[in-house]
Design brief:
This protein is an all-alpha fold and 95 residues long. The chain is 66% helix and 0% strand. It has one domain (1-16, 37-93). The protein has helices at 2-12, 21-24, 36-61, 71-92.
């Protein structure tokens, strides 16, 4: 169940391309239609990053008293954050 949880949060952490541009107010022309493989690649990257981040974090904190009773929640948040960071960096390098 933890694997499915991390995969779901990895999918939810996948960001749309160019999300960071709204903070800098860059004038952006309408983008051309992206190739369909880019969507699938971005979702796959988010799934892998979420699974890796959640699994590695859970293995690290499993015996830690600070996270007693909250290992799944904390690992899920790390899975979501790692997928957001990795897919955000990947989409910003695309252009």
């Amino acid at each position: 169940m933890a694997t499915l949880f991390y995969l779901a949060l990895g999918w939810c952490g996948t960001l749309y391309p160019g999300w960071w541009r709204r903070f800098f107010k860059f004038p952006t022309p309408p983008p051309p239609d992206p190739e369909p493989w880019w969507y699938l690649g971005r979702i796959g990257l988010g799934l892998i990053a979420g699974l890796a981040g959640g699994t590695l974090f859970q293995a690290r904190i499993i015996e830690d008293q600070f996270f007693a009773g909250q290992a799944a929640i904390a690992s899920g948040l790390v899975a979501f954050a790692s997928a957001s960071i990795i897919t955000g960096l990947a989409t910003s390098l695309k252009r």
